Amino acid sequence: MSFQSIKRTALGAALLLIAGSFAFACQSTSSTDASNSDAAEKVYVAPGEHDEFYAFMSGGYSGQLGIYGLPSGRHLKTVPVFSQFGENGYGYSEDTRPLLQTSFGFVPWGDAHHPKVSQTDGVPDGRWLFINENNTPRIARVDLTTFETTEVLEIPNSAGNHASAFVTPNSEYVSAATRFSIPMDEENLQNQDVSIDSYKENFNGTISFIRADKPGEMEVSFQILVPGYDYDLSHAGKGPSDGWSFFTSYNSEEANTMLEKNASRNDKDFIAAVNWRKAEEYANNGECRMVPGEHAHNHVNHDTGLAESEMRDEVCVLNPADNPGMVYFLPTPKSPHGVDVDPTGQYIIAGGKLSTIIPVFAFDKMIDAIERESFAKDIDGIPVLNYNELLHGEVENPGLGPLHTEFDGKGYAYTTAFISSEIVKWDIEKTEVVDRIDTYYSPGHLMIPGGDSQEPFGQYLVALNKITKDRYLPTGPELWHSAQLIDISGDKMKLLLDFPTSGEPHYAQAIPADMIKDKQRKIYDIKTENGNPYKVLNEDETGIERRGNEVHVYMSAIRSHFVPDNIEGIKLGDEVYFHVTNLEQDWDIPHGFAVQGANTAEVLVMPGQTRTLKWTPTKTGVFPFYCTDFCSALHQEMQGYVRVSPE
Ligand code: CUK
Ligand code: CUA
């Protein structure tokens, strides 16, 4: 059976999904939907010209954030977030290592899924970007003036954190929720050593709201205890629905093995609608229970530029059974994945992985049903609303395996169909499909610049495909995922460009370049903007200081030498700290520092910045160090020696 022939058959869908395999018979597809020259003109960014949009793509299992230009698809930078990054020493250097501390100790890797640009009045504002970690549950903040990770908060009482990092319209909160329910003891919510098949009795989940609008001060403001389902994605309300957030869940069967979960017996799972303003009110009135919940808060100290890690040990927990009016369940067909709120804030749209329709809920109908107390039943204190009373409409024939939806701000929604490999455009008011375009292959998320906000910037859509197959030159068994740029400015969608992406971009964001490009930091003024306690202002301040078995080398780097560059007096058993200050005050002149045999990577030091590399020598002798970044005609000469003597 060829891929095309099974493309839009429900049987094929079920088989593919259940077997978990992709029976593609890929032929090279040379056709595009636009004429090639037309497409080329639309994506061509001439040498020396800048792209129109910054796109921020999660790196999935790379743990990082990828920065791309649109429409060119050029990869501009990788920003390390949850994984160590040898390229610049992130997570290795003394000044950045604390960012990767957790209650489990130092964790050098993460799985980054959903980047989200901070918002003001429901519109991306370009101050920060938040992104979640799906394995050891965390949320990070990236500063969009330096493109550096400046803060990481661990989420306690949670296993996985997938429904994150979605922001409320004024970035008051970032959402989080447990991807995997876990057994929690009733008193303290601590993870229990119990039999896994006691899932139904013992397992629970939490939904968390993280205060996010003050840099360096992220905190879990409150957690809401929820039944033991798997919480998948979320989206904040806006406009009329501002004050609410929506979370999809699956496994309402509370099965504890995948075979049972895959059977997905229940016709409907739930969207949890959370009135976070109500929850906030409960929390502010002290109507929550403080429970233990060890979690790390790590941030870069604004004054010193050094990362610091502190352990927090408590969290405020609300229980829907004790705190009514805070959570409602919206029955939602067949294992919902994405949930998205349209730009008007009126419609809530779910993507049911196994559903043959897309349900569109109306926010005002939901409020009306809540006011009438029209509830079908109650689960652990959470009222379940009636599906038909919430419905604005159902989109028929939306493609197989609908996952995620974005908006153009002109009344249309665009939904990815994973199994039938297409994007389906539909009219929100009429809930009718108006256009569809094939993607290559199996799109997960899609992204329209600003397309999740109250004012989409429109024009382009990027399909973030899971399977690449034959789209690029083959590179062994692994191919980078394929992103596809689609023109949505007209009635018909037009494919413009394929480009490869690093890791697995689950979700992405894009903002007009003009919003932030003139705010980019170019240097650190060494006198006023470098508060690092180990800095040197000039070569006269450099030197070597011994403190017990610690040796501190206060070193300068400027084209094209290090001072000091001959270091002696080090003994085996010493811990050597190279504090390297880059004395340059010129944009884009970093110096690198690496020493033979160091297991802490290198440091790449920006102009005016100080970075610290720790080196614990393991052999005696004389070892070279050198600058790793080609910084001048005499870059190759930028080197020195360190001598290590026996104890
Ligand atoms: S998930 Cu990857 S396709 Cu982590 Cu948002 Cu849906
Ligand atoms: Cu400094 Cu190369």
From TrEMBL:
Residues 1-25 form the signal peptide. Its main location: other. InterPro entries: Cupredoxin, N2O_reductase_N, N2OR_C, Nitrous_oxide_Rdtase_Sec-dep, Nos_propeller, NosZ/Cyto_c_oxidase_sub2, WD40/YVTN_repeat-like_dom_sf. It comes from the Bacteria. GO terms for cellular component: cell envelope. Pfam families: nos_propeller. It is found in: Cell envelope. GO terms for molecular function: metal ion binding. This is Nitrous oxide reductase.
